[in-house]
Amino acid sequence: MPIIIDGYNLLRWVQGIEEYQSLDEASLCRIVSEYLVRVRTFAQVIFDGIGPPDKSELGGIDNLEVFFSGENLEADDIIEEKIEEYSAPKNMVVVSTDRRIRAAANKRKSISVTSDIFWLSMIEQLDKKKPTPMPKEKRQGITESETDAWMDEFDLE
Q1: Which residues contact 13 (CB under 8 A, 6 or more apart)?
Q2: What residue segments make up the domains of the chain, in order of their start?
Q3: How many Å separate Cα 116 from the centre of its chain?
Q4: Which CATH code fits 3-153?
Q5: What pTM was estimated for this model as a whole?
Q6: Of 73, 108, 122, 105, nearest in space to 4 by CA
Q7: What pLDDT digit, counting tens, does each position of 14-55 carry?
Q8: Long-range contact set of residues 29-35: C-beta below 8 Å, sequence gap at least 24
Q9: How far does Cα 36 stand from its chain's mean position?
């Protein structure tokens, strides 16, 4: 399920949490990316303005496209446009606390989530222990020599 995130709306809310006060755009995007990979989905995050002068840290982030609105548009304008253009809006999640964005999402019957709810559920998911990968022996079975060793161990022939 694709997610559209109002970047500065989420970032400013998260920066209100003491341990995340120094979080910047790139750090936020890396945390969101980790979540997206975990839940196997993708997102677009849209920030107002032109962003930091050095955007190299914002490139190549897994499952996340990062956009800046530029000098002449607001992120809200771009988010509204994306909501309007998406072909399956009922399958889209829009993250923003902004009433204008939430109204646009609700109009298209998209799932609208406030920044605080999204962040808290995202952190809860990231705090869950990662599943332990299945050992290759379980998928492939044991070798013939291992089978013989166990047969000998239990006096089976």
Answers
A1: 97, 115, 116, 119
A2: 3-153
A3: 14
A4: 3.40.50
A5: 0.79
A6: 105
A7: 999 999 999 999 999 999 999 999 999 999 999 999 988 888
A8: 29/58, 29/61, 29/64, 29/66, 30/61, 31/122, 31/126, 32/5, 32/64, 32/122, 33/61, 33/62, 33/63, 33/64, 34/126, 35/122, 35/125, 35/126
A9: 3
Token pair of 110 as six digits: 């998209």
Using CA atoms, how far residue 22 sits from 11, 27, 74, 75, in Å, is: 10, 9, 24, 22
Chain centroid offset of residue 29 CA: 8
pLDDT at 68 over 90: yes
Using CB atoms within 10 Å of the CB of residue 111, give its burial: 0 to 12 exposed, 13 to 18 middle, 19+ buried: middle
Asked if 64 and 43 touch (Cβ cutoff 8 Å), the reply is: yes
Q: Model confidence over 92-141: pLDDT tens digits? A: 999 999 999 999 999 999 999 999 999 999 999 999 877 677 777 677 77
